[in-house]
Specification:
alpha/beta; five-stranded parallel beta sheet; 26 strands; globular
């Protein structure tokens, strides 16, 4: 998106995209949903047709990985030894799946979900699989569990925390999705983790922290990502859990920007706390901020965070960050499968989780952006449209 916007804004210099995969840029969110289910062919995931990159004179350097960065010489070195010089560098590497470092983790049949190769490997093995252990109850784990149930597989979902979606949603949303997955036949277990995987050549048994074990021919591990920023940090950029960027997505290295999952930034919707946001919205909006700065039209990154997840016939749409809430308000009846949980902090609306409720989401995100204070009893009235709370 940064490369596309550079051309749209009139950048006339050379542009190259260096990518570790052999594939041209594509959308990742459908991997754990439509692509895994076979509802979308991979060619429908490409962000642009192949000829677009040629027409816009954007060079794709694929199957290549940056291993070192020389900020003084304004040059990166690739794994195969090639060097690429730059005037400005935009680091948009995302993260690598966090591995489960336990005995047997190298066995065949244990997968993560991050790129096309991951899903293709899962699909290749699935015909010989009856039961899948899904490790992790975040978005990826729940989406994978839903897809695998649709594909007719027995699924055991393991979440080490007391509830699923614990890092991104309130207890009401967690309880709703736990009940839904169990109703769909998922053996969902919270407060339990993996001690070891066992098998001769491929996975056969998963040993759990509660001293039980389950038989499984496949495991999908979705326990988060590790920001792919090692070359930046080695070159002297500030960071830790991601690389630190300012409001224009500049790292502490001159002419080096970072955007997306790997960029740690002070977010106004988190009361200025430094966070990493793993979402399409964040990546695209930070791309805009970085490009604007490069084009000498600096526009600070202030976008409202939003997320979504599709599971079964449920669409979860989230606006804002709920971590700092001190009160929740329920709008609607979860039994109808259309409702909203609103999150308040000192009476101010800071986030919304909307289940099959696009109207609340569309209207409510404007309220979150504006930081509107709403009386909880009025907010709970689902017959009242959220836009009515917007100050005139």
């Amino acid at each position: 998106m940064a490369a596309i916007q550079l051309r749209q804004k009139g950048f006339t210099g050379s542009i190259a995209i260096i990518g570790r995969e052999d594939e041209p840029p594509y959308e990742r969110p459908p991997l754990s949903k439509e692509y895994l289910l076979g509802e979308k062919s991979f060619d429908r995931l490409y962000i642009q047709k192949a000829e677009h990159w040629t027409e816009k004179e954007i060079e794709l350097i694929l199957g290549a990985e940056v291993v070192t960065l020389d900020p003084a010489g304004k040059c990166v070195t690739l794994k195969d030894g090639r060097k690429v010089e730059y005037g400005d560098l935009i680091w948009s590497t995302g993260g690598d799946p966090r591995p489960l470092n336990c005995s047997g983790s190298e066995l065949k049949g244990i997968h993560s979900i991050r790129d096309r190769a991951d899903i293709d490997a899962i699909l290749e093995e699935l015909p010989d699989v009856e039961r899948v252990a899904v490790v992790g109850g975040g978005y990826i784990g729940l989406e994978a569990a839903a897809a695998l149930r649709k594909l007719g597989k027995d699924v055991v979902l393991l979440e080490v925390l007391p509830r699923v979606l614990a890092r991104v949603a309130g207890p009401e949303i967690s309880e709703f999705f736990e009940a839904e997955h169990r109703a769909q036949g998922v053996d969902l277990r919270t407060g339990v983790g993996v001690v070891a995987f066992e098998g001769k050549d491929k996975l056969e048994i998963v040993h759990l922290t509660d001293e039980t074990e389950i038989e499984a021919q496949m495991a999908i591990v979705g326990i988060g990502v590790i920001p792919a920023v090692a070359p930046l940090l080695a070159a002297g950029a500030d960071g830790g859990n991601g690389v630190h960027v300012d409001e224009y997505c500049r790292t502490t290295l001159e002419h080096v920007y970072a955007i997306g999952d790997c960029a740690a930034h002070a977010n106004r919707f988190a009361d200025g706390a430094v966070v990493r946001l793993e979402s399409v919205q964040n990546a695209n909006d930070q791309a805009t901020a970085a490009v604007s700065a490069i084009m000498d039209d600096p526009q600070p990154y202030t976008a409202l965070p939003w997320f979504w997840s599709n599971q079964y016939d449920l669409r979860l749409q989230t606006a804002g960050l709920s971590a700092l809430h001190d009160q929740t308000v329920l709008r609607g009846d979860p039994a109808t499968r259309k409702f909203t949980v609103a999150y308040l902090q000192d009476g101010k609306l800071i986030a919304l989780d909307c289940i099959n409720n696009s109207k609340d989401y569309a209207q409510g995100r404007k309220l979150v952006e504006a930081g509107v204070t709403i009386a909880p009893d009025e907010l709970a009235d689902a017959s009242r449209q959220l836009k009515s709370f917007m100050p005139s």
